[in-house]
Amino acid sequence: MTSAGATIDFKNVRKTYGKFVALEDFSMRVEGGEFMTLLGASGSGKTTALNSLAGFVDIDGGEILIDGVPITKLPTEKRDIGMVFQNYSLFPHRSVIRNISFPLEMRGVARDEARRRSFKALEMVRLDSLANRMPHELSGGQKQRVAFARAVVFEPRVLLMDEPLGALDLKLRETLQLEIKEYQRQIGCTVIYVTHDQSEALTLSDRMAVMDKGRVLQIGTPEQLYDRPQSRFVAGFVGSNNILKVQSVEEGFMTLEGLGRFKGDGRHLIPGGFVSIRPELITIRHGGSGAHMAHLSEAVFFGNSVRYILRAADSKEISAIEHRRPGQDVLPLGTAVAFDLDTSDLVPLLD
Amino acid sequence: MTRIVLLVYFVLVTGFLLLPLIFLLPISLTNSQFLEFPPKSLSLRWYREFFIDQSWVDATLVSLKIGFGATAISLLLGTLASVALVRSNFRLKGILTAIFIAPLIIPSVVIALALYIVFLRWRLVNNIYALTIAHAMIAMPYVVMIITGSLRRFDMTIERAARILGATPVRAFIHTTLPFLTPALFASGILAFFASFDELIITLFISGGLQTLPVRIWNDLSLKLDPTVPAVAVMLTLVSILGMTVGEIARRRNERRYQSNPISEA
């Protein structure tokens, strides 16, 4: 079961519902075989983008192309796209194997051939022992595996996934993330994956696009989005982050609002602009004294690390993540600590 | 104290609902020429009488023909109308919904009179097909009410899934929505059938010489009343209980499939 992934082009797609603009000038290119994630809050337009590619909504402007061929005039069933839905959407009156063979049935594949291929898909998701069960006899994870097998059994070149793990608990979600990634590598199809879970997006994607108010804010590899967010929205949405304001930049020094003066080069920064820095890049010195002092106002224990919220003299808060060795105690709240950061780690944000 | 009051209330209300039916059974089993309660001796004489008397059998066949015809027409048109009423948005949708439900609310006599006038002009009185269509009209509200209710609870993403997996709109409907609607179609089919099967007033106006089962009973009442009528009534009751049971079994089976039951993760 393999297919060469198709390229997908969204060109200036626009979709409105009355006064609500769901997609505005939405443009994006997804390369063949790529795993692309659309990440955004509800109402950001990510699902509308997926549904317009699937043909469930008619777009008001722009064009969508698969391998360079415009598809917006094609009815849904002619687009040859696989899709997995959040609520599984298995056919309740069909057994597992007949759910999976449905797309083959619709394509006029002979019975025996359809059965053989469906079994192969079922073996891939390791549920071949449940072929004759009815969907209501399956657990959530099993249902989603069946839905996945059904979506890829006809070897589509494009696979859409709409929050497929949204209804499952955390542990199972992590297991299925790994499985999905493995199957996609095996099959080779292009995947567009929609989620509001940033950690899921970071785990799965080759590239990801952060969406807000019907537009793509930033698109890039997970590393690029994590390391170099371009806007306050992206910095706040992907991973946890400190967003700070630059007060002034001088030769060899710079001042962050509420935190004080830091030694280091700040030439890449603009006074009055915002910067972000990851909590794991803030260093803490226990009990010591230093240029920058703060009190611990909160501590969250993660096992391998501890997240502290530091309150600086100016009551400005900043979060720091410290890796932890076995036996190391979490510092009590109220402890005075010295903290520091490397100004070259500060990422300038455009807005 | 409250329990006793509630018990008395329960017995009174259910008794009120069931009593006439309870009387019918012994009366139908009498061996006498007349309606008597309690019967002096029991026999199935009047049941046999029903099957021997050609006019009863003919009337039953006419009623069955019209009933099945009206059910088929009302199910087909009612289901199509329900899809439009639930899934699309257009002006006058509210008014159209009201029109489909209207035959249930407008007094039968009014509909009967209106149909009589129209049918007289179009020479459709004493025409079994015209009568079937008239019955389909009064059966349609049951279908539209039950099917629209059921359609509103249907998760459209299942039909969407069928579409993206390669089904045309019609095939997607047949493979996903239709199986979901089966129990509702069954239930509304039974209601539609009995709406037609026991319809009397409209039939009296426009049937001309055609004798349906209710018309036959009605005619019997005004001439001579023998225990065949209660025998027919008991048989009708049994048939409808059977129909309702089958419908309920179908509904429960479907409900199990569509509920997202919590099965522990493996």
Characterization of the model:
The complex is a heterodimer of chains A (351) and B (266). With 351 residues, chain A is of the alpha+beta class. Chain A has two domains: 8-231, P-loop containing nucleotide triphosphate hydrolases (Rossmann fold, 3-Layer(aba) Sandwich), CATH 3.40.50.300; 240-349, Nucleic acid-binding proteins (OB fold (Dihydrolipoamide Acetyltransferase, E2P)). Helix content of chain A is 24%, strand content 34%. In chain A, strand 16 and strand 17 (305-312) form a beta hairpin. The mean pLDDT of chain A is 91. By secondary structure, chain B is an all-alpha fold. Chain B has one domain: MetI-like fold (Orthogonal Bundle), CATH 1.10.3720.10. Helix content of chain B is 77%, strand content 0%. Chain B is built from eleven helices and no strands. The longest helix of chain B has 34 residues, at 54-87. Chain B is globular, with a radius of gyration of 23 Å. The model of chain B is unreliable at 261-266 (pLDDT under 50).
Element layout with pairings:
The complex is a heterodimer of chains A (about 350) and B (about 270).
Chain A: E1 8-17, E2 20-30, E3 35-39, H1 46-54, E4 61-66, E5 69-70, E6 81-84, H2 96-106, H3 111-124, H4 140-152, E7 158-162, H5 170-187, E8 190-195, H6 198-204, E9 207-212, E10 215-220, H7 222-227, H8 232-237, E11 242-250, E12 253-256, E13 260-263, E14 274-277, E15 283-286, E16 293-301, E17 305-312, E18 317-323, E19 336-340, E20 347-349
Parallel strand pairs in A: 3-8, 3-9, 6-7, 7-8
Antiparallel strand pairs in A: 1-2, 1-4, 4-5, 9-10, 11-12, 11-14, 12-13, 14-20, 15-19, 16-17, 16-19, 17-18
Helix pairs in contact in A: 2-3, 2-4, 3-4, 4-5
Chain B: H1 2-28, H2 45-52, H3 54-87, H4 93-105, H5 108-121, H6 128-152, H7 156-164, H8 169-197, H9 201-206, H10 213-222, H11 228-258
